[in-house]
Amino acid sequence: MLSDRRQKVLAALIEEYVARALPVGSRTLTERYQLGVSAATVRNELSVLEDGGYIAQPHTSAGRIPTDQGYRAFVDNLLAQEGREEEDERCKKAADKLRESASELDDLVEQTSSALTKLTDCLSIVLAPSVLDLHIKQVSLISLTPYRALVVVVTEDGQVFNRQMEFAEEVPSDELARVQHLLGDVFSGNSLHEIENGLGQGMAEAFRNPLVRMTLDEVLSCMREGDTSRAHSLGVTSLLAQPEFSQSQALLPVMQVLEDDTVLLHILDNAAQTCTGAPSVRIGSENDAEALSGVSVVASRYGRGDAAGVVAVIGPTRMDYSKVIRAVRIAGAALGDN
User: Fold this and answer.
1) pLDDT in tens, 188-223
2) What are the Heat-inducible transcription repressor HrcA C-terminal domain coordinates in residue numbering (predicted)?
């Protein structure tokens, strides 16, 4: 546990390093920050912080830079201040403004991702809740021709999915209406996972009808297709603008990991597992994927229960954690009631 003074010196060093991406010396800290102690005391505190592994000296004649451990101590102190009433109120107002600017859920997701990138100068990712866990509000069957129909699925959070289905034999519109009624008993208020596990009322009766079984298969396929495009990301160019990634080769391992949807979902789901209100912050080597050892992931869950999504920011370990944590909180609040 760092003393208040060492925490203050560490915070000043991190703030300076975040702003300029250059090693920080004791003279810089003394001249630019009101630390309330002499230059000799600052030098002594820097030596103690270095011995403790919180900062490092890249070259003998250079200043110091934060280590992952130093960032962790700094972030833990930031998170300990979360939940202050005035900060909560500011985040709530910003989230309300973001919600008001979007007419539909898809618009809100895109605008939230865009706002995160602008606020943080990092890569932003909004991972929508798994479609398979969303409760279904309505299933409609619309006859297009006697041999073709449109299946429309509306979830309780307002998302709409549709898919055309074709019949080998003519199917009258009144038969489609009867099947729609049967499916209403099966689907309404249940998720696809619940339906597949046989929890939908009327399931046994409905499955005796071949058209119902066919329609159910079409709905499952439709929703699974929607589930493959859960991630909305923006800000690769913002990452390239950071000194750490000025050479695109440095960013390549990160992008290779993020372009693998399976790996991405695993990383974000794991990063947000421990979220209980405050965002989760994984710094450098704390990330499961070795390719992400040079970045930090700030993530937060939104929504309720199994039908929850994740909002995240990925950037260099030299990120403005205070700004990013606040931005992720705002984004999570904006998406949380939708």
Assistant:
1) 777 777 776 664 445 555 567 788 888 888 887 877
2) 106-325
**Residue pair 310/269 in contact by the 8 Å Cβ criterion:** yes
H helical segments located in the chain: 4-20, 26-32, 39-51, 68-80, 85-100, 105-120, 173-187, 192-196, 203-206, 210-227, 236-240, 248-258, 261-271, 321-336
- Its CATH architecture, for the domain 132-227, is 2-Layer Sandwich (3.30)
> What is the C-alpha to C-alpha distance for residues 240 and 224, in angstroms, rounded to an integer?
33
pLDDT of residue 109: 77
Beta-sheet pairing, 280-283 with 231-234: unpaired
pTM of the model: 0.76
* pLDDT range class, residue 315, cuts 50, 70, 90: very high
Direct distance between the N- and C-terminal alpha carbons of the chain, in angstroms, rounded to an integer: 40
Contacts of 189 (CB under 8 A, 6+ apart): 135, 136
Structure tokens at 93: 């107002």
pLDDT tens digits for range 143-195 = 999 999 999 988 877 778 888 999 999 999 899 998 888 887 777 777 777 77
Domain coordinates in residue numbering, the chain? 4-76, 82-129+230-336, 132-227
Q: Which fold has domain 4-76?
A: Arc Repressor Mutant, subunit A (1.10.10)
84 φψ region: left (φ > 0), alpha (ψ -120 to 50), beta (else): beta
The DSSP-derived string for 269-312 is: HHHTTT-SSSPEEEEGGGSSSGGGTTEEEEEEEEEETTEEEEEE
Share of the chain above pLDDT 70, in %: 83
CATH 3.30.450.40 given to domain 82-129+230-336: yes
At which residue do the structure tokens 């006859």 appear?
143
**How many angstroms separate the CA atoms of 234 and 244, rounded?**
18
